[in-house]
Amino acid sequence: MVALSIQNYLNSQNAYNPTYEQYAGDAAFLWMLRSIAINHPHYNASDLFELEQRIEAQLDGLMTSVDIGWQACDEALALQEVGEVFTAMVIAMRSHEPRKIQQAVEAGLENESATPGLISAMGWLPADIANPWTERFLKGKEMNHKYLGIAVCSVRRQDPGEVLNNILQRDDCQQHEKLYARALRLVGELRRQDCMPEINAAMAVENSEIRFWANWSAVLLGHRTSAHNLKEFLFNTGPHQNQAIQLAFRSLPIETARKWISKLSEDESQVRIVIKAAGVLGDPHAINWLIEKMKTPALARLAGEAFANITGVDLEQNQLLIGPADQLSSTPDDTHDIALDEDEHLPCPHAEKVMALWRTYGQNFSIGYRYFMGHLIAAEALKETLAKGSQRQRHAAAMELALNEQGVPLPNSSARVSL
Amino acid sequence: MSDKQKIYIAGVGMITPLGANVEMTAAAVRAEISAYQEIDYFDKDYNKIKMATVPDAALENCLNEVLLKGNLSAKQARLLQLATCALYELLPTLSNINKIPLFLAGPEQINVNDCGINKQFLENIVGQSDINIDLQNSRIISTGRAGGLNTIQLAFRCFESSDQDYVLVGGVDTFYDKAILDSLDSADRLLCGEAMDAFVPGEGAGFLLLTHRPELAAHYDERIVFLGEPGNGIETGHIMNEKPYRGEGLDQAFKQTLHNYNGPKIATIYSSMNGENYWAKECGVALLRNKAHFQDPITIEHNADCYGDLGVATGIVLAGIVTEKIKNGRSLAPSLIYCSSDREQRSAVVIHHHGAATF
Fold first, then answer.
1. Cβ contact (<8 Å) for B24 and A22?
2. What is the pTM of this model?
3. What is the pLDDT of residue B219?
4. Residue B222 within a domain
5. CA distances from A34 to A83, A358, A414, B61, B95 (A)
6. Is residue B146 included in any domain, yes or no?
């Protein structure tokens, strides 16, 4: 019998197991890197695209032999980590094998911190693969599956139609806090005006998570007075504080917003929040104060970001940065917090140089108006920033666009980039 | 370039340190996977060297010893295993072809007398694979890395002078041989310890099923991949001698293959560069002197980063990988592949898909 046979061929493929393990590990790691990069100030859409190409290359590698690839994913699933769940879910979905999909879904739902991997995988895949399963999840009896379906609609900005009303009205769905909250959030993201009665009902609920998303969506649906209801989230440190700032200071009347900022600044521990709020509001009234804050090493970068968001001045391009030696003093004390530093990768401004620039060009800005990236809020400039800005600027532009354009879904600035 | 100056790729087969077929290899290269690993060979300073090898398990059971002819050296057995495994992918197509000539490039003889490939080697391939190879019209060459692309040139001559519909070309090489490693070690060319100007030896085999009739290649993919006629050059100041190295050999090869080419500008160059500084100069010279044919900026790929130096298998494996990229729509602009031997031979070829370039 000759040596060449299909069985021998398959055996020879099995010899490359370590390569598949490397694909699985690298895909998970790169996904994790991307999940951090979507909020980094030094990443833009084209940087994200490059990173996504690297992730796709690992996933394609796993697909060159589905069985060996799945074996590597299956072993990695035991870790129940979010990146590994993402990888396994993509491979399972691309294999079209229900048993593998079930396995990945179960692993992703078992550990709450790994569930974003499932949702992200469904957002990653092309519509023809993801949609049939999204529908199945939405129609399923299991509440966690419904949650998954709604979350997928959220990341894909896909309208589930009547199913959304149904979920918002059903008692059993309302009992599932995560599902109810995500459904309420989806109403705002899709700008579903027909769901306003359900939003009104949710605003009266005691659960703060539910109340937050109901008010958040109400503002996006055009009910700007609901921004006042975000005050409790904005003034207290908590999981929704940043989201509340990003929405409230873009929708409140400018005078009210200023009052809120003044009130916030009474609490010295909230100084970073005040800087962020000033940047979001975009009123040049705050510029001198922001430049003053640039003199404090721990606040300089954040103040520089707020300044750049209002004026559109690129600190690096205009050589308004302090030298690397002077930056040492602003390095955070590494003995306390090991969380990622949100100021990392932000340029460190030189207060005097920025002040000199502002003295020259500040007259072009009118106090009492909202500016974003050097322009009064206008759709064209926002679209430009959404396409070309850094990630944080893209998030801001997306929110401004949704608030200023009727009926358009809130653009998902964290979605997979298609250049 | 007329239709006679093109040949079409009707199938690809390969085995490399990164995969048992073209799909696996191309995906691993794209994912920037490295097959480099330390092996149990110590250089003269007692450092372990790095090498990229095909996993032993991939080569197991691919030889039926009962069918072997003659006594094979360890190196010949390894080469035969590599060649046989690389043919797996082509088996369904090849089993329907009667009497196909095989042009096979074997290892360059670098301070080693026997390249390991001979007539008996071809007979053993036939015996192991049951492929109906026309042994009488088959040829073996051992011109080093350029050899793989040289076999494509032999295919052109074969189609011109016969009524063959198909020709099988290939390259097989391994540095996994003590005599060769010793000779490279004595020349300080192996990557180990603190060496910077050195390379990682690899091993592999690749085959291309070629035809001059586009309709016969159509079954392989809707984008019919074709090769222009390769160009050759001679570099008198090669790495094995002391003569002045001017980079003219590769320039000649580029000029020859680009002479009849008037399609879109070349977007990517696939090179046999393996990490040794020596190879950069000729690439620079050839690029500068032929820049009218290249996009600016041009992408230069050197896949030895991932699977090591495949020696004579380089050219065929690169052509297979580009074919796979074209099939997947990842390389729709024309590319140029070139290979430089340790000795004087240089060879280059344009690869593109049907309908987009004008020859």
1. no
2. 0.92
3. 67
4. no
5. 10, 35, 10, 43, 47
6. yes
Q: How far is it, in rounded angstroms, from Cα B236 to Cα B133?
A: 36
pLDDT (mean) for B289-313: 96
For residues B148 and B260, state if they share a domain: no
Residues B47 and B122 in one domain: yes
Which CATH number covers residue B89?
3.40.47.10
**Is B122 part of any domain?**
yes
Q: Are residues B26 and B140 in the same domain?
A: yes
Would the CB atoms of B88 and A12 count as touching at under 8 Å? yes
**Rounded distance between C-alpha atoms, residue A26 and residue A22, angstroms:** 6
Q: How many domains does chain B have?
A: 2
Q: Give yes or no for A12 touching B (CB within 8 A).
A: yes
B19-34 burial by CB neighbour count: b if 16+ within 10 A, else e?
A: bbbbbbbbbbbbbebb
pLDDT at A5: 65
pLDDT in tens, A126-142: 999 999 999 999 999 99
Which residues does chain B have within 8 Å of residue A22's beta carbon, measured at their own beta carbons?
Answer: 33
Q: Does A4 touch chain B (CB under 8 A)?
A: yes
- Average pLDDT score over residue span A185-191: 97
Residue pointed to by tokens 């010899």: A15
* CB contact (8 A) between residue A2 and residue B67: yes
Q: Which domain holds residue B46?
A: 3-217
B151 and B231 both lie in a single domain: no
Predicted pLDDT at A258: 96
Any idea which of A89-103, A132-146, B118-132, B202-216 has the lowest mean pLDDT? B118-132
Considering the domain architecture, whether residues B200 and B232 belong to the same structural domain is answered as no
Q: What is the pLDDT of residues B120-146, one digit of tens each?
A: 899 999 888 878 999 999 999 999 999
pLDDT in tens, A222-252: 999 999 999 999 999 999 999 999 999 999 9
Per-residue confidence band for B358, with pLDDT thresholds at 50, 70 and 90:
very low
Enter the ipTM.
Answer: 0.90
Phi, psi at A170, each rounded to 5°? -75, 135
The Cβ of residue A354 has, within 10 Å, a number of other Cβ atoms equal to: 25
| B293 contacts: CB under 8 Å, gap ≥ 6 | B254, B258, B261, B265, B266
In this structure, the answer to whether residues B240 and B176 fall within a common structural domain is: no
Residues B40 and B75 in one domain: yes
Predicted confidence (pLDDT) at residue A6 exceeds the cutoff of 80: no
* Domain boundary, last residue among B161, B183, B217: B217
B203 shares a domain with B250: no
Quick one: CA dihedral A375, A380, A382, A385, positive or negative?
negative
pLDDT over 50 at B149, yes or no: yes
Which of B92, B170, B68 is closest to A2 using CA atoms? B68
Interface test with B, best of A1, A2, A4, A62 (most B CBs within 10 A): A4
Domain-located, residue B358: no
Domain boundary among B199, B217, B235: B217
